[in-house]
């Protein structure tokens, strides 16, 4: 396997400058690079763009395109709005709690803390409407081992029944009882 890491993932944004400043202010993520052209290098289409790279830690890059000549961005109407998201790892549940408070103090709506047992998460929207998750790892080696054992069975069962297999129901037991 020669894949090293995520080089970058690219989303569309409404305003490149607003987006760069928002990620710096709210998540401490640095602006790395701007690439802008009047033509698209891969397709040669005439379509001016600003492409910004933002540091997501450890060499991972979150990228955005601002495209002034396209209609305002929308989202896939057939997919529930909690589905498509990007999750960043934070070092601890304490950092997760602190960040939640900081975001809320700035008037940002935060969902969670949600307990996924393997990690705890909060969810919120960036200025473009993209759903962002912050996740603090809480898994033990034992949990990871148990899940690894059942992953193929779960996938097989799902592919036949389209109903959630119960092998790992322990993951969200507490969250659903809350
Ligand atoms: Fe997620």
UniProtKB/TrEMBL annotation:
Domain of life: Bacteria
Gene3D superfamilies linked: 2,3-Dihydroxybiphenyl 1,2-Dioxygenase, domain 1
Official protein name in the record: VOC domain-containing protein
Domain (VOC) ranges: 5-137
Residue ranges of the TM segments: none
Coiled-coil regions, chain positions: none
Taxonomic placement: Bacteria, Pseudomonadati, Pseudomonadota, Betaproteobacteria, Burkholderiales
First and last residue of the signal peptide: none
């Amino acid at each position: 396997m020669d894949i090293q890491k995520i080089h970058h993932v690219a989303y569309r944004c409404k305003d490149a400058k607003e987006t760069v400043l928002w990620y710096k202010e709210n998540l401490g993520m640095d602006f790395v690079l701007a690439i802008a052209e009047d033509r698209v290098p891969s397709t040669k289409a005439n379509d001016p763009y600003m492409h910004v790279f933002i540091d997501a830690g450890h060499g991972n890059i979150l990228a955005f395109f601002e495209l002034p000549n396209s209609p305002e961005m929308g989202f896939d109407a057939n997919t529930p709005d909690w589905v498509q998201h990007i999750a960043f790892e934070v070092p601890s549940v304490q950092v997760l709690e602190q960040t939640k408070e900081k975001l809320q103090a700035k008037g940002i709506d935060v969902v969670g803390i949600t307990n996924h047992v393997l990690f705890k998460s909060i969810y919120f929207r960036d200025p473009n409407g993209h759903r962002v998750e912050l996740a603090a790892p809480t898994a033990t080696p034992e949990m990871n081992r148990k899940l690894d054992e059942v992953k193929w069975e779960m996938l097989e069962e799902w592919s036949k029944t389209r109903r959630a297999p119960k092998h790992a129901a322990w993951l969200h037991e507490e969250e659903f009882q809350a």
